[in-house]
Design goal:
The chain is of the alpha/beta class and 126 residues long. It has five helices and five strands; from the N terminus they run E-H-E-H-H-E-H-E-H-E. Helix content is 40%, strand content 20%. Strands 2-3-1-4-5 form a five-stranded parallel beta sheet, with helices on both faces. It comes from Microbulbifer taiwanensis.
Length: 126
């Protein structure tokens, strides 16, 4: 299992990831914490991304959840399944987080549409 879950902050990505993992010994990688970790340890983002690539290559099973579309794009070539939460659990449409392109619904949609593998879109009705 190599699953990437994308969507806006607060859309339910972490809950979906935890449900997928259950009690299995599967790596859960919250990519949005990667940038915070890099800042705290003094590593550059590129060093963090290289560590991420190594983890994705070395683990047989993982679930990645991410709101930052630039980070999600790094993980995309490694995943077998893409899940896009286009609306939050309350059914409110994804917002664009103050206009930041990396968190925009348009960018998530581009990633979703470009992925040729197994993919599912979740919204308030799903």
């Amino acid at each position: 299992m190599k699953v990437l879950i994308i969507g806006n902050i607060g859309s339910g990505k972490k809950a979906m990831a935890e449900q997928l993992i259950g009690r299995e010994n599967i790596a859960l990688l919250p990519l949005d914490e990667l940038t915070n970790s890099c800042e705290q340890t003094g590593n550059t983002l590129e060093e963090g991304l290289n560590m991420l690539r190594n983890v994705l290559e070395d683990h047989t099973d993982w679930v990645v959840e991410c709101a930052n579309s630039d980070l999600a794009e790094v993980a995309l070539p490694y995943c077998e399944e893409l899940r896009y939460i286009s609306q939050g659990v309350t059914g409110n449409p994804s917002n664009d987080n103050a206009g930041e392109e990396i968190y925009s619904s348009k960018r998530y949609r581009e990633l979703f549409e470009s992925f040729a593998g197994l993919k599912t879109e979740y919204n308030g009705d799903t």
